[in-house]
Amino acid sequence: MRVAVIGGGWAGLAAAVEATQRGHAVTLFEMAAQLGGRARSVAVDGRALDNGQHIMIGAYTATLALMRTVGVDPARVLERLPLTLVGPDGIGLRLRPGPPTLAFARAVMSHRGWTLGERLGLLVTATRWMLQGFRCDPAMSVAALTASLGTQVREQLVEPLCVAALNTPAREASAAVFLRVLKDALFSGPGSADLLLPRAGLSELFPEPAAAWLAAHGAVLRLSNRVDRLERDADGTWTVDGVRFDRVVLATTSVEAARLTREIAPDWSRLAAALRFEPIVTVYLHGKGARVSEPMIALSSDDRRAPAQFVFDRGRLGGHDGVLAFVVSGAAPWVEQGIAAAVLATQQQAAGLPNLAPEPLAELRTFTEKRATFRCTPGLQRPSASIAPGLLAAADYVAGPYPATIEGAVRCAHEAIAALET
Questions:
Q1: Helices first, then strands: H and E counts in the chain
Q2: What percent helix, strand, coil does the chain show, rounded to 5?
Q3: The predicted structure's pLDDT at residue 56
Q4: Domain range for residue 136?
Q5: How many CB atoms within 10 Å of residue 11?
Q6: 363 and 299 both lie in a single domain
Q7: What is the CATH number of the domain that holds 65?
Q8: pLDDT value at residue 358
Q9: Is residue 45 part of a domain?
């Protein structure tokens, strides 16, 4: 079939690769001049910096398989580490290799920063979640779900995990989605919770190899090409800006998708347009000899003086010595204050880290993704993958069990291509 894929982020590229593998003639439309969407690299002073510091985990099986399909060896471009959530003082949660349930229990009981009561309380609560099949009231928030846990457990484990996975503060985040993430990450098999931290730029991980693979397999890539109009013809085929296709996969942002489907599927369009977003700010700071104790460490954060929840040492990961990436998820309060204020507060936060250079770290580049992810709130209605006959959506905001993640986008893309053939 002639298949149009509209959108060249990870979901659109995944859909294009899958459709091409199945023997379809694929044309991909991307409004930007570069592929990758919200997970791509940008050249800054001779360095390839990412427009957001993404974390993958061992449970990203679909993403890892897709990377191999286009010729990327995950072992070369990703640093695989056991799940480690430690602070600047080295205290935190460290999972060892082995059966995930046992590894989690050992990590909790060996945590030096929690009281015995807090450690036992977390294990009892986690056991209850397991017995309940990691299900809860869809209307419950993460804060309500974890209210019985100790204060330090909530502040040092629950809130960082929640904002990292759902990009939504615990008080507003969906407990049902949070539990599904915990189930798949911590308890779905050995290695599922491993951190996979990019050693190369995000574009090198998938978008650039995918583009080369698609071109080599006959797909047509149209960059800097915003689709203005999508129409369904009387014979059931589709016209994309005057070009006819048998099937269409919509892999754009929800805003663009709502625009293109306003007349085709008004109810679907309204649901897509109703989604609200959470920003992510990534502040790259640099200084001679700047390093932290781990490739990634967790930071104490708040909405007033300490924006970042995590810092990544790009010298340890990608060879950019002296470059630290500070990630501010759920960044709405800081975007409202202004990016200059967020950068200054991040520099002050960095100054409190041990073993940094004596001089203040300078700003290298700051990226602000105002629509980084949808707000993953309790009971959220997300648009379905099916829009109209022969027209499907593939994106991380489509209805499903996961928050806005690369893995969710890739899985949705695969399902959309399979559905196009039915």
A1: 17, 21
A2: 35, 25, 40
A3: 93
A4: 83-192
A5: 30
A6: yes
A7: 3.50.50.60
A8: 65
A9: no
Q: Token match 């040092």: residue?
A: 156
d(CA 396, CA 54): 14
Q: Are residues 356 and 283 in the same domain?
A: yes
361 and 405 in a single domain? The answer is: no
Q: Does residue 389 share a domain with residue 369?
A: no
Count the residues in the chain. 422
Query: 79-109: buried (b, 16+ CB within 10 Å) or exposed (e) per residue?
Result: beebbbbbbbeeebbbbeeeebeebbbebbe
> Is 387 domain-assigned?
yes
Mean pLDDT by 10 residues, the chain (422 residues): 98 98 98 96 90 91 97 96 92 88 93 95 96 96 97 93 94 97 86 93 96 98 97 94 97 98 98 97 94 93 93 91 95 95 95 79 96 96 97 96 95 96 84
Q: Is residue 46 part of a domain?
A: no
Kindly report the pTM of this predicted structure: 0.95
Q: How many independent structural domains does the chain possess? A: 3
Residue 150 placed within a domain: yes
CA distances from 175 to 341, 377, 387, 401 (A): 31, 8, 28, 12
> Which tokens in the block code for residue 9?
């982020």
CA 408-410-413 angle, to 5 degrees, is 110
